[in-house]
Amino acid sequence: MNTQPRRSLIDRLLRLVTDIRAGESTTALLLTLNIFLIFVAYSIMKVLREVLVLTQAEVEGKALSAGGQAIVLLAAVPLYGAIASRVPRRRLINVVTTFFVVCLAVFYVLYTLDIPIGIAFYIWLGVFNVMVIAQFWAFANDVYTTDEGKRLFPIVGFGSASGAVAGAWVTGVLQSAVGIGFALLIAGGLLLLGVVVTNIVDSRERRRTEALLPDVLTTGTMPAATGQFRAATGEFRAPDAEYQKESGTFRAITSEEVVADEPPKSTGGAFQLVWRNRYLLLMALLVLLLNWVNTSGEFILSAFITDAADRAAASGVATEEEIIGRFYSGFQGTVNLVGMLVQLFLVSRIIKHLKIPAALLILPIVSFMAYSLILFVPLLAAVRWAKTGENAADYSLNNTVRHALFLPTTREEKYKAKQVVDSFSQRAGDVMAAVTWLGATALLGFAYTQLAAVNLVLVGIWIVVAVLIGKRYRRLAAVTA
Length: 481
Description:
Layout: H1 9-14, H2 25-56, H3 58-84, H4 89-112, H5 118-143, H6 146-177, H7 179-210, E1 229-230, E2 236-237, H8 255-260, H9 270-275, H10 278-314, H11 320-359, H12 362-376, H13 380-404, H14 411-443, H15 451-480
Antiparallel strand pairs: 1-2
Helix pairs in contact: 2-3, 2-5, 2-6, 2-7, 2-11, 3-5, 3-10, 3-14, 4-5, 4-7, 5-14, 6-7, 6-11, 6-13, 10-11, 10-13, 10-14, 10-15, 11-13, 12-13, 12-15
């Protein structure tokens, strides 16, 4: 007699995308909706950011703003880690997201008072983007086991890809219909809806996996950042860390210590966790290189479109703001549409057949081809389509694979170290790109496209780092299998 639960119609439909099993579709779709709402909001703000910063500060102001983001994150990441060590995951997500929504209301007021917000909004959005999205993926990693995440992250990632498409399209409508100010408020409302979905998923998954546990041992009570792993059975466990009833705390360990069977180390701050763990350190370096390359490419694209907008505005075709807004709305829409199709039809198959380590190498290969094209064909159309291919691969396949690297890590590494890797390392890469851009163009007199040659060298280093990460991922995944 077959005792396996029957697959629902939704389960069977989702099997066209990935290897989903009976009963898994509800949480997967809720998480997909959650990240969809976040990305619609972010995509709206991303286009508005380009309009504000390029019309108020131009490319140089955009480059200098990257340094401001890194400085803010030096304080924000340790603060986030300290909160994650004290409060449960639901409260952590609610408090952090609400803070960013309040900030949007403040930007709305400043904008309506005609106070320039371009640089401040650029810095703020860079912090929001990495912290809130890293927080969502930490939560998704906390919900799923390593095997579940590899199978179901392609579905969840579709939410970010489709949300980016919807957001880019909606922004073009909102900017002309309600203006930049009200568009900021709409983005805040979408973030609040995402928080509601997060709370539903949290309650559902705690009932499913923690119903028989004492309340003190559930994720509803324990801090978000503990030294536990999500076992293949679905339970949280700490192989060499026992719950201390007297102190009510966990003795945290790192994933590499479990592999090496070494004594556990004491709990540290977010940056300490990354520094003492080679796997996390390599991931931080990979993200830094990725963003160094990608942001340098964004500067190249911005320079080309700013020059084109200046010429068009001088001829009276349209205002500079209108031209830049239309370009980035169309550009982001195309990038996100391609990324969505790749996410829907290719990502799960690539992960299944090539596996995570090999899939991690695809984006740097795409980037190498993109900057080779820019170097030899220095035209706006070539830059646009090179960046379209790179960004689409980044937002779909690479996004899913990069977050899956955290599946076999501890909860502390997910909530604290992930903020360093996904937040600070991203912005550090942006700073390196800004330094490269300003130094090469202002001091050395490089042409825009000559920076593509610098990117080709960086991509070579990126590939070496990706190979090393893939080797360590195999070891960690074996531990939690």
